[in-house]
């Protein structure tokens, strides 16, 4: 059994594949966090931290003081606010009398097989109840009637622990939730670096590492989306940890809105790690009998550095976060017309691109922004999801059918969360956008955000999109979102509920996505937020791939894809070859390098194939053939990072099939160097006993020598170059 409870010392021991997580019920019913780390057989140590006894160090006690016990040094699982723990609380409620103090204590627990769905929220899941075991610990604050259920799930096949908390008002009076984080845990020391994925539009998920120091260090989003500025992920890394060695604790929130991840290093060098919905500008009125479910947290412990942590996230997310008919299917190679035409296209020009793309081997054509309403630039028509007859006089039904007849599947762009001032929808419903009465409605990319906290708005969008998806031949949807929230308020919420708007918006969005993806199970959905502005597990639950970044420059993409791979598997990362000079950074890179970088993700093109020379078309044809041969390895295999582009003039990564018999290794060099010395690239994850044939050179090497001695990197001439090796198990018996 992965979860055991020992009555004699009141210990819960959660055992994942290679990880233990231990909790104890201690004095007066508080919940002590004891351990998270490498799996141990049993826990016998006495872990209560002894109180040091000097009253001047600030400790306070409850009246029934117990010798050696102080909440302010007790490592806790879900600390309250207002008792004698003066560190950062996991939650805070306000009672009807205005007080904000509460004190949660153990009430009961249960252990059961399987895993419950989280009401209205995305989460990892099980297909059969034997796949996982769940522990629910119920805590209660007697005075207010607040009950908190902490849920922990341990999977049989994935080395993860997931957590969430549910706040329930079992009292007779209203409660206001002011803070409700999903998880909190205390480490007994602060000997860590904090890793985060930070950035901006077009340079998402840059690796940032800093040493923990005394006090709070946090990342957060207040933008109404998880954001490109900070991904809802942190990792605590032991000082000696790196890609392949040392202890790493990865924590990822399954949520797409405002979040906070905070580490508080306290006076005795303990570290309190917390993650959840950002308490800033948040509150939630909880009437008697109501509950508030927090988003799920996925926690991965690795004793072999970041690489093992990432592969654990990848496996779980591929199989037990992403859903739908495309979860286990190879993804189609697409061509998107955005960078080829922007808003300037006709039915004929679209079909011409599609015809040429088909000849090159592309499988899916995606019509991007500009096909609806009167949309000829970004100032109008969001919300008017009917065809732009000026551009597509024969309608979408005909166009999608024609594209199918050319031999390609047809995909369509939507930005369903937005509304343009110049739109029929806005003229009909001027109060359907997020706004605060009497205040200016700020624009971002000339548009406003629809108020998804209102169910009638969500229903209208579901209806409009359903109409499009059922009456045309659409196999793919690109779901875009191009601005953050401002003047966050809803016309229909009471004054004391206005701070619920941002989270209610997320619940509305999740409902819309749930209904549409359920109604159209054969459609492949890809999410996008000006590129990778909402690349998070919440979105992946509904849409199994994300447009990784609007920056399609191959060299920029090395960093972006490398950073993204910390948590998210390659199959989820949309990666396209675009034209040169690149539209974002104006860099000119070889077509082969652009292809090799994009093949590290979910491959496609975003350029005008008509404008390509015959020689370029031949290269594209080859790239597509090559990707079709390797895509099962890239999309479903294990991923190893070999050289970091963040620290070097070169970069490398590799993919290996689960049976270790097929391998793809990609090497990239940014700037040319003179008089270079011989450099070996050491591979990882191979079977040391297996022999591998390198297809490109037809040479055979042992897995052990490829890993321990390495493979020789060929001399590459010029800037922005790349080299790809494909390896296959060499079967001696065939000789
Ligand atoms: C932003 C996206 O990231 C682009 O790929 C493109 O779809 C544009 N929006 C269209 O407006």
Automatic annotation (TrEMBL):
Similarity remark: Belongs to the glycosyl hydrolase.
Domain Glycosyl hydrolase family 36 N-terminal: 29-287
Name of encoding gene: rafA_1
Active site positions: 480, 550
Name by which UniProt lists this protein: Alpha-galactosidase
Any single biological process term in GO: carbohydrate catabolic process
InterPro entries documented for this protein: Aldolase_TIM, Alpga-gal_N_sf, Alpha-glycosidase_related, GH, Glyco_hydro_27/36_CS, Glyco_hydro_36, Glyco_hydro_36_C, Glyco_hydro_36_N
Catalytic activity: Hydrolysis of terminal, non-reducing alpha-D-galactose residues in alpha-D-galactosides, including galactose oligosaccharides, galactomannans and galactolipids
Domain Glycosyl hydrolase family 36 C-terminal per the UniProt entry, residue ranges: 651-727
Keywords, sorted A to Z: Glycosidase, Hydrolase
Top-level taxonomic group: Bacteria
EC number: 3.2.1.22
Single GO MF descriptor: alpha-galactosidase activity
